[in-house]
Amino acid sequence: MATIFTKIINREIPAAIVFENDKVIAFKDINPQAPVHILVVPKKETVNDIKEEDKELIGEVYLAIGKIAADLGIAEEGYRVIANCNEYGGQEVFHIHFHLLGGKKLGPLV
Ligand code: 5GP
Predict the structure, then answer these.
(1) What are the residue ranges in the chain where pLDDT is below 50?
(2) What is the pLDDT of residues 44-60, one digit of tens each?
(3) Angstrom distance (rounded) from CA 69 to CA 101
(4) Catalytic residue annotation
(5) CA distances for 82 relative to 7, 30, 102, 108, angstroms
(6) Dist. CA 95–CA 3, nearest whole Å
(7) How far apart are CA 22 and CA 42, in angstroms?
(8) Cα of 57 from ligand 1 centre, angstroms
């Protein structure tokens, strides 16, 4: 089912896009939890249960994360990548995505 991220991909609503290629888009989170908070999103409307056919796509996501972290100058100091899954994971948008957080020394995970 289409989510708000599909609207961002289709340019139906605006977002501060920091990276895009044919498979992946990345933009600033609207409610940042760290000085750098980027959402890295496969353009395919993949949900949480990653299929065999999606394994290369997840590799594309991590290649994008590495590029974005370098571009934004947080690669050397370090950063965190989080994927929230379903209710207990605190997921709000059901289109698989990865939070790239950095720009300060991050606190505990939970
Ligand atoms: P989740 O909790 O599903 O892992 O994360 C969803 C994230 O999407 C949240 O951090 C939330 O702030 C962000 N978000 C929700 N709606 C929008 C939006 O319209 N634009 C942007 N840029 N981020 C959004």
Answers:
(1) none
(2) 988 888 999 999 999 99
(3) 9
(4) 97
(5) 22, 16, 11, 13
(6) 7
(7) 9
(8) 21
What distance in Å separates the CA atoms of residue 7 and residue 11, rounded to the nearest whole number?
6
Dihedral pair phi/psi, residue 22, rounded to 5°: -70, -15
Strand order across the 24-28 sheet: 17-20, 24-28, 36-42, 98-102, 79-82
Closest CA relative to residue 22, chosen from 72, 56, 69:
56
Instruction: Give residues (CB < 6 A) around ligand 1.
Output: 4, 15, 27-31, 39, 84, 90-93
pLDDT tens for residues 60-73? Answer: 999 999 999 999 99
Q: What is the pLDDT of residue 48?
A: 85
The Å distance, Cα 96 to ligand 1 centre, comes to: 11
- Token pair recorded at residue 22: 């044919």
Quick check: 42 and 61 in contact, CB under 8 A? yes
